[in-house]
Amino acid sequence: MTSPDYAVFGHPISHSLSPRIHATFGKQTGITLDYAAIDAPADAFAATLARFADAGGRGANITLPLKQDAFGLCAQTSDFASRAGAVNTLTRVDGSWHGDNTDGPGLIRDLTGRHSLDLRERRSLLLGAGGAARAAAHALLDAGIGELVIVNRNAERADALADSIRDPSRVHTRYWNDLADLGSFDLIVNATSAGVARETLQLPFALVAPRALCYDLSYGAAAFGFVAWARAAGAGKALDGLGMLVEQAAESFAIWHGMRPDTDPVHDALRAELPLLATD
């Protein structure tokens, strides 16, 4: 049995669509690749990644909850990954790992490209402070949002993220128990792991401004609770993160293979299998 050249690492990982997405990209571009899903709990991630590299692994995607751990295993990182302090794309270069973060560009491509949304000056709420939240925060600020309020169930992690951004005029943190007192937002991004863990977030409807955009970085069943809440609150758009998943995968594919695939056919095929979650 041969070892894969490329893989996605996470825990849990059996639900991941990444192997299917990259296989489709390979067929579309005529590039042959062997891409697998590898389960790696946080305490075993470094050793598992090392075995993958020793067996000839050339590139890896990293998902929940390992993106900050992956950052620490890199000899070099891109500018965006360095700012985010999180890595979701690893490339083997001269016996070491080079880290990139394609989550941020993937999110912005989905919002502004696929959905034609203008993010400028939006008052924004970010729920969560993990690796995905870090990428989302920097990408949204780069895209020109106005104020960013970060709320996490662990307040210290929210403060650490805000401090790392170093933009106190636009970035603020609040306590989870203060959500009902924060007013309304034009953009709400759920970057928590609640949906993946099958937990329910108790969020006040008052957070949602008229015609607000609500976006869950998770996709499929993991995003259903947040998307349903957003629709009940009257959001203008309530989206899951399927588009972001496909776009960040395309960015990773381009890093590894020097060719960016066409994402629309892949997105549309997966969207047909995950109905309703992206309907306005």
Quick overview of this protein structure:
With 280 residues, the chain is α/β, with parallel strands linked by helices. Helices cover 38% and strands 20% of the residues. The chain folds into two domains: 6-101 and 245-273, Rossmann fold, CATH 3.40.50; 104-240, Rossmann fold (3-Layer(aba) Sandwich).
Q: Can you tell me the number of structural domains?
A: 2
Write the CATH homologous superfamily of the largest domain. NAD(P)-binding Rossmann-like Domain
The run of helices and strands is EHEHEHEHEEHEHEHEEEHEHH
Strand count, sense and closure of the main sheet? Answer: 6 strands, mixed
Uncertain runs are: none
Examine the secondary-structure arrangement and name the CATH architecture of the largest domain: 3-Layer(aba) Sandwich
* Helical fraction: 25-40%
| Euclidean distance between termini CA atoms | 46 Å
What's the shape?
A: globular
- Count of discrete alpha- or pi-helical segments spanning 4 or more residues: 10
Helix-strand makeup class: alpha/beta
Strands side by side in the biggest sheet: 2-1-3-5-6-4
Strand percent estimate:
15-25%
**What is the CATH topology of the largest domain?**
Rossmann fold
Rg: 18 Å
Residue-averaged pLDDT: 95
Task: Give an overview in words.
With 280 residues, the protein is of the alpha/beta class. The chain folds into 2 domains: 6-101 and 245-273, 3-Layer(aba) Sandwich (Rossmann fold); 104-240, NAD(P)-binding Rossmann-like Domain (Rossmann fold, 3-Layer(aba) Sandwich), CATH 3.40.50. It is built from 10 helices and 12 strands. Strand 11, helix 8 (224-232) and strand 12 (237-239) form a beta-alpha-beta unit. The longest helix has 16 residues, at 242-257. The mean pLDDT is 95.
